[in-house]
Amino acid sequence: MPCQRVIASLGDAQIPEDEKKQIARAVGMRIKKETPLFEEKLSGNATQWVTRIVRIAEQSKASRPVTKSSTVDGVLVDQAGAENVVGFGTETRFLHDATALKEHIQKG
């Protein structure tokens, strides 16, 4: 699964060059519905761009999540797995518990 994907084409939009990174961060946070630890101050023009881009992205089918993953402590449980692993002690117990948890979640 890629970290970045195209969710909307902006064509040749005249986004202010000096604020592109801030705008991109703000758009990413809004799309993922995350709240930044430290709020970045954006200019009025940048704020308008963020709003416009988020609106376009929300209307795009590509911005919708493909699948909903189950997470436990930030780990994508439904994508966890192990192959050809030799473990001893606590590692073996963890692998057993992780496999059991994954199976439990998949059963619903």
Structure description:
By secondary structure, the chain is mainly α. It has helices at 20-31, 44-59, 90-107, and strands at residues 71-72, 75-76. The protein is 43% helix and 4% strand. Strand 1 (71-72) and strand 2 (75-76) form a beta hairpin. Helix 1 (20-31) packs across helix 2 (44-59). It is elongated and about 55 Å long.
The separation of the N and C termini measures 24 Å
Number of strands: 2
**Strand line-up across the major sheet:** 1-2
Number of spatially distinct domains = 2
Strand fraction equals under 5%
What is the number of helical segments per DSSP (H or I, 4+ residues)?
A: 3
Which class of secondary structure composition applies to the elements? mainly alpha
Name the helicity range. Answer: 40-55%
Quick rundown:
With 108 residues, the protein is mainly alpha-helical.
Outline the secondary-structure elements.
Layout: H1 20-31, H2 44-59, E1 71-72, E2 75-76, H3 90-107
Antiparallel strand pairs: 1-2
Key structural traits:
2 domains; 43% helix; elongated; two-stranded antiparallel ribbon; mainly alpha
